[in-house]
Write a structure and sequence with these properties.
The chain is of the alpha+beta class. The protein contains 13 helices and ten strands.
Length: about 450
């Protein structure tokens, strides 16, 4: 439920409805202008839920139970009607299930050369396709040399982890843990703690805290310790989009569900505000009309389909210009509400004409929690300063509304930065190697 505050008495703001609309529209634009200007492996954990003692759900790692009674622990990366794939600690698996380990090792060796050859072919095609993009090509050429010189199938046992693949027909049950529990295990592995594969999450967490290890902020990357896995065309194209976003000119859009503006356009703030006003005018007029008890400004509600595809303009322009990935941020804020929400999505072209959301990152900030001095400091930004000057020129400015708008701007910037950090953590998993574990689609 959103907590909304009524607008200040309209009679104190301007003598006419047109004047009231104008000043609220200008103030409403400040948070958007600030958000437009400010944007700078394992998921960050939530608090691990308490589990019944002895339950498989109390473990730090996912639990795979076979019909034969065999049970092992790891990170499930695929679980469908065909098979389950699970990343397990090689040494533990080899010691506990020697026969099953030898079976899986032979599968791993058979698949490795095929996967390696496919990777080389894909990278060669990619280099040819983007041969004029110097930074990207340099990265891809380095990756191609690394893959070609990488260990052969006989050296796979030197990898710390093994990908176990079990046909669905042999499964009894699969228990997938929370991201928080998995992260605890990952951090414990990084610090070489004992028996991570068979430890409960709360036990490992206590041990990590005793060592004064910050689980939430620890950086974990085992991509070099996991054998390359086959990537479907869809997974590969998603990786291509992320890597190109990093090594080519990134494409970003910001706005709301009705309007998306391209970040970095060389347009002055007046044009930016004018574009925003043109899209926001009816909504803001309706808001004020509601305060006055008027119904003449009602219009049909936005359809659910339109709201779902708020990013469509961005992907259409991206594909037209030859981009394969785009980052879009939607600001959900109202100058009457104390809360600002930001939702950022990364979209990838998985095939021509088809774009998919492969990562969603969000945060919110409370306007009342913002430092007043920090909010006023935003006036030093020439883009924000020009907005304020436009308000002052009208003679319609109200100090309390201006202060509120600046706090909204500070909150917007804070939420945008937090969502941006989430995206950075996500992106980092896929941009350092072309053969790190594949991206998982829901």
């Amino acid at each position: 439920m959103r907590l909304c505050r009524p607008l200040p008495s309209l009679g104190k703001v301007a003598p006419t409805l047109a004047g009231r609309v104008r000043v609220v529209l200008l103030l409403y634009c400040i948070p958007y202008a600030i958000g437009f200007a400010m944007v700078g492996h394992w998921p960050l954990p939530q608090a691990a839920a308490q589990r019944i003692k002895g339950s498989p759900k109390s473990m730090a790692l996912d639990v795979v139970m076979l019909s034969s009674g065999t049970r092992f622990y790891g990170v499930v990366i695929q679980n469908d009607d065909q098979a389950v794939k699970c990343v397990v600690e090689r040494e533990w698996f080899r010691n506990q299930h020697p026969k099953l380990y030898q079976e899986q090792l032979q599968i791993e060796k058979r698949n490795y050369e095929t996967i390696k050859a496919e990777l080389v072919r894909r990278v060669d095609d990619w280099i040819e396709d983007r041969k004029t993009d110097k930074d990207l090509v340099l990265f891809l050429e380095d990756e191609r040399r690394r893959i070609a010189q990488d260990e052969n199938a006989e050296d796979l046992e030197n990898k710390r982890f093994l990908v176990v693949e079990i046909p669905a027909a042999e499964l009894n049950k699969v228990v997938v843990q929370t991201p928080a529990q998995r992260r605890i295990a990952a951090v414990a592995w990084k610090h070489n703690m004992k028996n991570v594969s068979v430890q409960k999450a709360d036990v490992l967490l206590r041990q990590l805290k005793r060592k004064k290890i910050d689980v939430e902020n620890e950086t974990v990357d085992f991509s070099a310790e996991i054998p390359a896995m086959r990537q479907s065309d869809r997974q590969w194209n998603a990786r291509v989009a992320i890597i190109e976003f990093e090594y080519r000119q990134p494409l970003e859009y910001q706005g709301n569900s009705k309007m998306m503006l391209r970040k970095g356009d060389k347009q002055n703030i007046g044009l930016l505000i004018g574009e925003m006003l043109g899209n926001q005018r009816l909504d803001m007029t309706k808001q004020i009309a509601k305060e006055l008890g008027l119904r003449d400004f009602d219009e049909p509600a936005e359809s659910k389909d339109d709201n779902k595809k708020w990013w469509k303009k961005a992907t259409e322009e991206a594909e037209k210009e030859g981009f394969r990935g785009v980052l879009v941020s939607r600001l959900d804020q109202n100058i009457q509400s104390p809360e600002v929400k930001v939702e950022t999505r990364f979209l990838a072209m998985v095939q021509p004409g088809q774009w998919e959301i492969i990562g969603t990152f969000s945060d919110k900030a409370n306007v009342n929690d913002q430092d007043p001095d920090e909010a006023k400091g935003l006036l030093q930004d020439p883009r924000i300063k020009s907005v304020v000057e436009m308000i002052e020129l009208t003679g319609l400015g109200d100090k309390s509304l201006l202060d509120k708008a600046l706090r909204h701007g500070a909150a917007t910037g804070k939420a945008m930065n937090a969502a941006g950090q989430q995206f950075f953590n996500f992106k980092k998993q896929y941009i350092e190697r072309v053969d790190s574990p594949p991206l998982l689609f829901k």
